[in-house]
Design goal:
The protein has 232 residues and is mainly beta. It has no helices and 22 strands.
Length: 232
């Protein structure tokens, strides 16, 4: 089963400094049929104007992954962490028992991110934050785990959930596939370009909710950059 969710039909809001589209219910957008997909709870497509950002605010008991598509995001938190994550790279914040953080676009250009929230396997635990580069060349033609709570994904940023966030780049005409275990849910979004997923066409920033498919075959109709979440 693959349900295409066109970008144009997503919920969202325009706050001036922030233009957001929501694949799932979030803030002022509520759709009872879109409260999550497996343990995936939030997938926001955010555009943040230069010199603006999210001021300090709290979170608890959530794994928050930021995939930077364009520009860069600068992070500060109540643990004293500071960092800058640039396009193509990823940061992870495990909110645990509680953390306050701020995310700013300190650049001269618009920053575009996917903000992905995954429900952890258990509540509590010490909060944590990390970032690392993931050169696109390393995921050319194959899915690479960017953040993961599964054994064997040691190069990925750790999360506290039985889930994976994966990246893939393909040139037009290329193909890659991903094996989806029984009972798992996948959600796939092309950050750029157009693809077919098991024959279903997706354009840039469309979503695909996938389950009961043993193989997820991605065929690039144009040069593409894909992000996929696999969770129970």
């Amino acid at each position: 089963m693959i349900e295409r969710r066109p970008y144009s039909a997503l919920g969202g809001a325009d706050h001036g400094w922030l233009k957001a589209r929501h694949h799932f219910s979030f803030a002022g957008y509520m759709d009872p049929a879109r409260m999550g997909w497996g343990h995936l709870r939030v997938w926001n497509d955010d555009e943040i104007a230069p010199g603006t950002g999210f001021p300090p605010h709290p979170h608890a008991d959530m794994e928050i992954i930021t995939y930077v598509r364009d520009g860069a995001i600068s992070h500060q938190d109540s643990l004293g962490n500071q960092g800058r994550t640039v396009a193509g790279d990823v940061q992870v914040m495990s909110a645990g028992t509680g953390i306050r953080h701020a995310e700013y676009n300190a650049e001269r250009e618009t920053t575009r991110i996917f903000q992905i929230w995954i429900i952890p396997d258990a509540q509590g635990g010490a909060p944590a934050w990390g970032t690392r580069p993931f050169p696109k060349g390393e995921r050319a033609g194959r899915f690479v785990a960017l953040a993961s709570g599964r054994a064997g994904d040691g190069d990925a940023l750790p999360i506290r959930a039985d889930a994976r966030v994966l990246g893939l780049t393909l040139k037009a005409g290329e193909q890659a596939e991903y094996a989806l275990e029984p009972g798992h849910h996948a959600y796939l979004v092309p950050a750029a370009g157009s693809v077919e997923v098991n024959g279903v066409r997706l354009d840039a920033r469309d979503g695909a909710a996938i389950r009961d498919e043993a193989r997820v075959v991605v065929s690039a109709l144009a040069d593409t950059e894909v992000v996929l979440v696999d969770s129970r």
